[in-house]
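Ex. 9. Protein: Leucine zipper transcription factor-like protein 1.
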Amino acid sequence: MADFGFNEHHQHEVINYMRFARSKRALRLKTVDSCFQDLKESRLIEETYTVDEVTDILNGLQVLVRGEVEMELINTAHTNVLLLRQLFSQAEKFYLRLQTDISELENRELLEQVAEFEKTDFKPNIKANQETTKPKLAPLNEGGVSELLQREISRLQEDNDKLKARLRTLESRAMCALEDKSKAETALKDLQKSQGVHQELEKKFQQTAAYRNLKEILNKKNEQIKDLRKRLLRYESAE
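Predicted structure tokens for Leucine zipper transcription factor-like protein 1:
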């Protein structure tokens, strides 16, 4: 058995693709054969042909065969793109970036291995259910992929824990700020209330007779002080 470094599952996938490619190739070859057969039945009906007639017949055959070959090459290229699309889509789900080496597509040694693989290992007598049943995509269980996926999960879990801790800190700060605001509002209300009581008491005190008498006495004392200052200034000037 040719060894391409694949596991059993991938080896089976290669066989499925080669079976598909062989069926498409056989169908296209039948079409080319039909081109020659149609030519024989429709154009080669005379016993002798001139050079111009033979040239015209070959030119027409060339156009048909060229069209069939070109169509097959284009279809093969497009089919390979769809195959790569499937592989890349699966790889991106696991955060992988696959790379291709175009030069390896012309490696004669590898091409010979593929040809030998098709001769020895590509068996057409596979059960019909294997041919018709579409295989389900199995998850990749290689160590590298599992490790990479586990790292990504751990990183996301760590980020999630950090966000939760930050959220708890912000919530605690918000609660403290609300409590401080509530205390400040209560203190302000108490202060405003007490100031209102002080102003009310002062207003009532100013309206009492005792306050008026004290104010009158204070005014007289101020006048006496002013008079004494004037007398002291006269005495100091005389001296």
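Check your answer against this statement. Confidence is low (pLDDT under 50) at residues 125-133, 137-142.
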